[in-house]
Amino acid sequence: MSQEEPLAGFAIAVVREDGKWRCDSMGSDALRELDSAITELRKIRSTGAVFGMLAVDDEFFLLLRPSPGGMSLLLSDAAAALDYDIAADALDLLRVDPPEEDDDELWPEGSLDILADLGLPAPELQVITGEVDLYPDQQLQMIAQRCGFADQFTALLDRIQQ
């Protein structure tokens, strides 16, 4: 079995507990395997909100949020499933067929209201995912800003990218 090249990007677990936000790095497998990201998020014990933010290879992002009924998720670009296993796994979990090879259109797939209770309504998240001129880390920065944890997000990214 050959060792796969690591994917560029980052995976961050975001926790809001007692009115305070915390951002922590997730393991490197979280960028490659959806199951790894889900497992890692489910291990986090908190009375508040817990969700994951994954920026993959400067191409797309994933938002993952465990809930008692399963896993809510949002894939910023459904076409990423043609090139990335983690995106294909996300569409599979959503029970959505991947787009055709010749489809050039970009669209998000999943729960646009995934962060609505944290201050980011679905229409605003739709606008953020539609900003195709931005890189995924920039889109996630906008999400962090809107939800109120931009400082924690930026501080962790600065540590990760050193």
From TrEMBL:
<protein>
    <submittedName>
        <fullName>tRNA adenosine deaminase-associated protein</fullName>
    </submittedName>
</protein>
<dbReference type="InterPro" id="IPR023869">
    <property type="entry name" value="tRNA_Adeno_NH3ase_assoc_put"/>
</dbReference>
